[in-house]
Specification:
alpha+beta; two-stranded antiparallel sheet; 6 strands; 111 residues
């Protein structure tokens, strides 16, 4: 069990101070990082919280997962490592479905 937790389904106005207060009863809160949109600075609805020990992290999951904040039920679980790669399109390689990297996406109706 890791000490870093993923917190999802957050109201967009939630800030680091609110999350610190929410998680403090479960133990020592080391860091809180609300993920924000780079262009607008608005919260994206999820965050990462690092607790002091594995036991405190497990306690936080037990106590806070499903709790309502701002009318939304929070999702709290162990954070998974960020996957490398990214690339778009088929196979994660090129820029489009053809894998040619020409930056054009195939456009199809969505019905």
């Amino acid at each position: 069990m890791g000490r870093k937790l993923y917190v999802g389904n957050l109201p967009y106005q939630t800030d680091e101070a609110a999350l610190t207060s929410l998680f403090a009863p479960a133990g020592t809160v080391e860091t809180v990082s609300v993920v924000r949109d780079q262009a607008t600075g608005r919260a994206r609805g999820f965050a990462f919280v690092e607790m002091g020990t594995d036991e405190e992290a497990q306690a936080a999951i037990t106590q806070i997962n499903g709790v309502e904040l701002g009318g939304r039920a929070l999702t709290v679980n162990e954070a998974r490592p960020k996957t490398s790669g990214g690339g778009g399109g088929y196979g994660g390689g090129g820029g489009g479905f053809d894998g040619g990297g020409n930056g054009r996406r195939r456009s199809e109706p969505r019905w």
